[in-house]
Write a structure and sequence with these properties.
This protein is of the alpha/beta class. It has a single domain, classed as Dihydrofolate Reductase, subunit A (3-Layer(aba) Sandwich). It contains four helices and ten strands. The strands form two sheets. Strands 5-4-3-6-1-7-10-9 form an eight-stranded mixed beta sheet. One of its GO terms (biological process) is riboflavin biosynthetic process.
């Protein structure tokens, strides 16, 4: 089954920023509509403990665009959380996430998607398990307040573009097919 890494990011590659609201306060109706249509309802969401706590908090406060995630199947990889998990439709897996996801790709009835969970996504990309890499870039730079730099510690990855879309307010969807590289790409034609 397909596995997608799915992020939201500032233009400078942060997943969050101190003092800024979720989606940097720029979640327009067109983006939220797409989010509802794209809905994780057709996927099983994979996340680590920190992302679970964050999104469960958003869902509990009925943050628009997150509240419908209660009905979605969620798998949480953690050694710090205990069962039973509070958020409905959540299952806890302890142990090696890469091996568990390798098995899930073979047995799942639904496509798999990470949500946030930087360390989990990095390990799945490094293991070559990711079929799609999707990021929604919000038109802000949060260099002073940015937290959670998304790409630090990642392997080198070539990305083949599958789809782009611009939402209200200049928010940009970029959807790629990733290829983990053993070495940087050689110079192309016309490079100096």
């Amino acid at each position: 089954m397909e596995l997608m890494v799915d992020y939201i990011a500032s233009l400078d590659g942060y997943g969050a920023a101190e003092g800024w609201p979720g989606w940097w306060g720029l979640e327009g109706p067109e983006y939220l509509g797409w989010l509802g249509e794209d809905s994780a309802a057709h996927r099983t969401l994979l996340m680590g403990a920190n992302t679970y706590r964050l999104f469960h908090g958003f869902a509990a406060s009925q943050t628009e665009g997150v509240d419908e995630l209660g009905a979605v199947q969620k798998i949480v990889f953690s050694s710090t959380l205990d069962e039973p998990l509070e958020w409905e439709n959540s299952r806890l897996i302890r142990g090696d996430a890469v091996e568990a996801v390798r098995e899930l790709r073979e047995t799942s009835d639904h496509p798999l998607s990470t949500i946030g969970s930087l360390s989990l996504a990095r390990s799945l990309l490094s293991a070559g398990l990711v079929d799609r890499f999707r990021v929604v870039v919000f038109p802000v730079i949060t260099g002073k307040t940015g937290q959670d730099r998304i790409y630090d510690g990642y392997p080198d990855i070539a990305l083949d573009l599958i789809e782009t879309r611009t939402f209200d307010g200049g928010t940009l969807l970029l959807d790629y097919r990733p290829h983990v590289l053993d070495a940087p790409l050689p110079p192309g034609p016309g490079s100096a």
